[in-house]
Amino acid sequence: MTGPFGRSTTRVALLVAAVVVVAVAAFEQAVSRLYLLNFSTAGPNASAALAVLLVSAPVVGLASSLPDRARTRASTGGALAVPVLLAVALLGSPVTAAVAASTVGAVTLLLLVAVLVRRPATVTPGAALGLLAVVLHRSLLDGTPLYATTAGRVVLFGLALCVAGGWFVRPRHEDTPPSFDADVAPLALFLFVEAAFLGAPGAVATWGLTSPTTATAAAAAGLALAGGLVALRGPPARVTLPVLAGGLVLAVADLLWLGLTAGAAVGVAQACVVGLLARGAADARSSCWRWGPAAMGQLFAVVLLFLFISSLNWAYMPAPLDSLTRGRSGLFLLALSATVPAAVALTAWGARAAAANAPAPDSAGTDLAPVDGDRRTALLAVGGALAGVGSVALPDRRGPASAEARPLTVATYNVHQFLAPDGDYNLEAVARVLRETDAGIVGLQESEGNRLTSGTVDGVRWLADELGYYHDYGAPTSAASYGVALLSAWPVRDTEVVSLPTHDSPRRLSMRSVVETPAGEVPVVCTHFQTQQGDDPDAVAVQGEAAERVVELAGDDPRTVLLGDFNVTPGDDPAYRVLADEFTDAWPAAAARSPSDGGTYPADEPVERIDHVWTGDEWSVRSAATHGGWDASDHRAVSAVLEDPDQSV
């Protein structure tokens, strides 16, 4: 038999931590790939059926029914399969990646349950350590998950190899087959909720535009405190379940709606979730339930997940989903978080029912009480928390912007929610494009990456730190829009965000900020109009209304610059006429252009110029160019070099 169960408690906890990191990453990977398969943008379709693969608990039931030798093979084969499946998820097409990543989730749950049955006291501290690692690497990688960048993928694959290797290294006397006979609902729902929401504190913070630093530090502290206490003192008593459940619900409600703690409530939420998992793990083996409640709970969570995604994209959903989900995204997230205490309560009830009808099950070979090794686990949790808190206090890599007199280069770029059309993340490709533009001010559209559907990747923050920009998100994730954002080599202030008129479209936004350039203040408006929906007269008319709203937002400062994906080509459309009456289209006004046609969409072979730079009367346009290709986004970026005839910039 291969397995970790004969080792010291600390070593087992470290293995659990590695499994949890891989499981969280695989879940996020699966959901983001489902999104690319139009899971959330084209309504229910064949790809939505792949979401059923996120329900991994039936694998535990299948393994439980196998003979001893087959269970041994399932355990060892599953551990060996983790790095292979993860490699397929990282390198495969969207469909292949979604299936492989979902399968990784099923296999890692199987491994965690095997540990849960033999070493229940190690699961919760190990899971807390794993989540501390998730929080730490997200902070160090500027808000991105491990699989979103090349370096992160290398680290993630290394952890998968550690899982496989750690499972095979065992004492010679450890030869009993693994058992999967436990109520796995608390563990399964814990992983689901952490991967879907709580495990990305930076993304949680942008839900209400609170401080990512505060949220990350609070999450690390909450995980360390709860994980350390469980390691030292064991699981909380059953009578504390209402307190833990109430604390979780109130903390999530504050994160979603109230904002009283500026994101610090994520620490309370994490502490409560860890405490709930510890109680569920303590009751798991003695509960009369097995994998059935976990499968049903996961299925319910998938439904809530789908409803949450629908609520962010309600305009693309068929009736009655559009009306049922619009404006209710927070409610679905709150319900999703509540599945954890519900699962733990059900497990506790199952344990009491089993105790009332039969003698307590034999606990030989388990470690329901903490042991000396758990003190080391607690110290690891504290150390992880200090690293997580310390990582958010690292000095800003942004250097001072050059103040020398030079022309002002601006750019606009629709970044496709940081997902390339081929299914991979485009962060590094977008960074290369922006370096090519050499722009001091960049307006981004489809910049709301802090969604579950894009792996909760904080692309705006990552680009800002990678390229040395200041940044402004514009609107919070809770605004349920595609997102607009601003990157600037100089400080940004006085941001104002407005909603634009729409017709059967998710919310579209426009933001106005003032950039403090070396030549003085430059008002910048970044916007994203809805499409014309196949020349629908109502959509075309609404574009005109949106243009009027943007002109009103811009004001009458002649130094204003407009950047955006306007989804309108030059011509007689109302939106283009409204803008042309007040501003200058930089492309035809440029003294030099590259290429000559200026097409921006689609990126591989552009036939339409729908992304524009507009300037106020005080600017002249020295040159304009398009940048990028299909590897970065479905749009090309547009840059323009501006000069103020009255003063050097």
Automatic annotation (TrEMBL):
The chain crosses the membrane at residues 42-62, 74-91, 97-116, 123-140, 146-169, 189-209, 215-232, 239-258, 294-317, 329-349. Coiled coil: none annotated. One of its GO terms (molecular function) is endonuclease activity. Gene3D superfamilies: Endonuclease/exonuclease/phosphatase. InterPro entries: Endo/exonu/phosph_ase_sf, Endo/exonuclease/phosphatase, GPI-anchor_lipid_remodeler. Keywords: Endonuclease, Hydrolase, Membrane, Nuclease, Transmembrane, Transmembrane helix. Residues 411-635 form the Endonuclease/exonuclease/phosphatase domain. PANTHER family: CALCOFLUOR WHITE HYPERSENSITIVE PROTEIN PRECURSOR, PGAP2-INTERACTING PROTEIN. This is Endonuclease/exonuclease/phosphatase family protein. The lineage of its organism: Archaea, Methanobacteriati, Methanobacteriota, Stenosarchaea group, Halobacteria.
